[in-house]
Specification:
mainly beta, Jelly Rolls, seven-stranded antiparallel beta sheet, about 10% helix, binds 2-acetamido-2-deoxy-beta-D-glucopyranose
Length: about 325
């Protein structure tokens, strides 16, 4: 009867653990408006973008777009709005007092509470073991260009590194390799050192649901994934991520959006050719990605896997 034990354990954890604390909820509430986006009211700080307003680059689906069905279960009434985030040729971010980021085109949403993203928020989201949930879907009317690299979800400490990220497209290389690169069409979860932990084809009609579990103390990552209404499944067991820095220096903003890297411009000097932030080729096309189901939870009570279930996956 030994084989029954894991099953019984799973049932027990399902019945005892009915809720797990949500530490920050980026599932855009139905009352969130585009005016709120422009003033960073609500869960998103929207200042990392080009010269236009946030609502030029982002829109909310109201009740006409269907978010990931993972968090509504059999009741298909949406409880959140789809967030559509786009870039165009004006999406050149100019950090305060610094050079325009002419190599990138980017629109980032950053986890915040009415614009506040401080150490208190980092300590809440990024200590112990926390779960970063997000779902992405293609915008088939404004597709990404798989010949470029995109970084679309990540946590960024002050050193500019990524604790983990979700990447799409052909990784930037100098010199430019085959385009699109093999696997360019995959969604890739990468660790701090840039190793791919999990990849799956970015089919355009599905919601792709992810949960990345970060153990901030032992510095490891685990990944859960599903498509559409299927409950999240473990796809990567906890894996060391020791190049990430421990403690507060390793904490940072939780970003999601569209960050498009350039291609090498052979007209630039050799050192500028590696400066993807400021140099390189961009076509200036309008492209977008859809988001829903973005939130962070404390895993002390288990991991929400969708359809009302909470499990202890490890
Ligand atoms: C939306 O409604 C909730 C609940 O009434 C409220 O707490 C929140 O402040 C509202 N959000 C916005 C952006 O108006
Ligand atoms: C895109 O923006 C860059 C930088 O501002 C500019 O040099 C370029 O001419 C623009 N391209 C198009 C197609 O508008
Ligand atoms: C998670 O919950 C546990 C148990 O309630 C608590 O001790 C811990 O501080 C929480 N962690 C975070 C990051 O909120
Ligand atoms: C996609 O990027 C490649 C490489 O820069 C470029 O040749 C191609 O024209 C781009 N496609 C579109 C639709 O902009
Ligand atoms: C997911 O959707 C399919 C098709 O609508 C349905 O048959 C299935 O029961 C759903 N699964 C869950 C877990 O809700
Ligand atoms: C999967 C994995 O182990 N990723 C990286 C985590 O950090 C260590 C230490 O730097 C790297 O060696 C691993 O490649």
């Amino acid at each position: 009867m030994k084989f029954l034990l894991p099953f019984i354990t799973a049932i027990v954890s399902l019945s005892i653990v009915t809720a797990t604390p949500v530490l920050w909820d980026g599932r855009a509430p139905l009352n969130l408006t585009v005016a709120d986006l422009d003033s960073s009211i609500g869960p998103f700080l929207t200042v990392v973008k080009g010269s236009e307003t946030a609502s030029h680059y982002a829109s909310l689906g109201g009740d006409s777009q269907i978010p990931t069905p993972l968090w509504t279960g059999s009741d298909t009434t949406p409880t959140e709005q789809v967030v559509s985030i786009s870039i165009d040729n004006s999406s050149v971010f100019v950090p305060g007092g610094s050079q325009p980021q002419l190599g990138f085109r980017r629109t980032d949403f950053i986890a915040a509470n009415n614009g506040v993203h401080d150490q208190t928020l980092f300590d809440s989201l990024e200590t112990g073991v926390t779960e970063f949930h997000f779902s992405v879907k293609a915008d088939t009317t404004r597709p990404l260009n798989f010949s470029h690299e995109y970084q679309v979800v990540w946590i960024e400490p002050n050193d500019g590194s990524h604790v983990f990220d979700l990447q799409i497209g052909s990784p930037f290389t100098n010199p430019t390799g085959q385009l699109p690169s093999p696997g360019a069409h995959d969604l890739k979860i990468r660790d701090h050192a840039g190793n791919v932990l999990f990849r799956t084809d970015f089919t355009s009609t599905s919601w792709h649901n992810f949960a990345v579990q970060v153990d901030w103390t032992s510095r490891s990552l685990a990944v859960l994934y599903s498509a559409d209404n299927a409950s999240l499944q473990v796809v990567t067991q906890p894996t060391p991520n020791l190049s990430a820095t421990g403690g507060s220096a390793g904490q940072g903003d939780y970003h999601f959006g569209v960050l498009k890297l350039p291609l090498v411009n052979s007209a630039d000097s050799p050192s500028n050719q590696n400066d993807v932030v400021h140099f390189g080729i961009q076509e200036g096309t309008t492209e977008a990605l859809l988001y829903s189901g973005v939130f962070v939870e404390n895993t002390s009570g288990g991991v929400s896997v969708g359809n009302g279930a909470v499990t202890n996956p490890f």
